[in-house]
Sequence to fold (450 residues):
Amino acid sequence: MEKQNEVVLFGTWASAFCKRVELALKIKGIPYEYVEEDLTNKSVSLLHYNPVHKKVPVLVHNGRPISESLVILEYIDECWNNTPKLLPEGPYQRAKVRFWVNFFDHQIMARLLPIIMTRGEEREKAIKEFNELLKVFEEGINKDFPEEFPFLEGKTLKYLDIVVGTALCNYEAFHEVVDVVFSHEKNPVIMAWVKALKNHPLMKETLPPHDKFVDKMREKYLGQYP
Amino acid sequence: MGEEVILHGTWASPFSCRVIWALKLKGIPYEYIEEDLSNKSSQLLQHNPVHKKIPVLVHGGKATCESMIILEYVEEMWPQNPLLPTDPCERADARFWIKFAEEKGPAMWTVYRTSGEEQEKAVKDTLEMLRAIEAHGLVDKKYFGGDKIGIVDIAFGQIAQWLGVIEDIVGVKLLEAHKFPRLHAWIKNFKEVPIIKENLPDRDEMMVFFKHFREMLLTSSRDS
Fold:
């Protein structure tokens, strides 16, 4: 008898890293059980499945745990080897996609905390750096994936769409709580991409609701409770 | 795969060595270009305009950057003597440790580059990294890759030689054999693998180079 494909995702609703995995599972049409973790009181299961980092997301597939959102995404793509594929087929294109996802996570997203933690001139400088890095990203993606970019309505979501979308689609919440960092004037290509992603039904279904997310960000970054 | 393979690297860089080890383990012929980082070649700047860093692998004129991304490319392009397992779960486990090495590895370089409070924190972070590897990465295994070395062993290569050099120069012992028996054994086993043994930079030369470079770094940070 074939073993049941049991998929459990441990996550938190406000985490973009967890949303990445949820979105990937939905794109692939993989049924899963979702377990919402309270990070102030982590479950025994989470600590058992991710003893090194004790973090979400963790995907447990037939009892075997996988941690780290990007590792999980590649795992999902390899294990459920049906269309739609999240990563491109050729080794060179795969290297390019990995390079830009790495750049996005480590260069671009890493700039959000300095923006949150600073004020005045220092913050303006941090926002400017963020916009410049987004520009490098825009140009790079445009050069390396001319057919894929920008994301068009009705297209299947892929690896880069998942990473960019789950991070940036809630930009309005960031603008409301922290500061305006992202505009059509400064980064028109990414803005168009993000707006198209926001309209994708799976993205709409996966992203946390705006107001709830705003409250969560206020709590996290400003120590303000509703 | 008759297309030309060129590697831009520097002799003392652990990241450059990662790529050399992978190419040699797979028996891939390549041309090596030693870069002078104070005077980067026009090809390097053309092939890695975003970061302007080594290593860069150029295969048939197409450039791939970031050492671990290069390794996955090499693995996919030249599947002989595989560095990654075939089972998706084991592959995910390997990638988990690659990410861990990339995220936590820089701490040992912060120990090397800094002093005072910043260095103390980096020492703590490095010890935490070593403890995690000791407790979870090498359980019942000779190598991270199992019976033979794989991509994770290559990713942690810095611990096998560069960490020791940093410890000697800075004057702090982090990887004590009795506290990290598995890692200590792994270092010995890793360095005995013929391809690794033949392709580790000379330790004495490394000491001279990194000692001098550290003096320059600390002087310039004092002056600024």
Notes: Chain B touches chain A at residues 50, 59, 62, 64-66, 69-70, 72-73, 76-77, 88-89, 91-93, 95-96, 99-100, 132, 135-136 (CB under 8 Å). Chain B has a mean pLDDT of 96. The longest strand of chain B covers residues 5-9. Residues 169 and 211 of chain B are 6 Å apart (CA to CA).
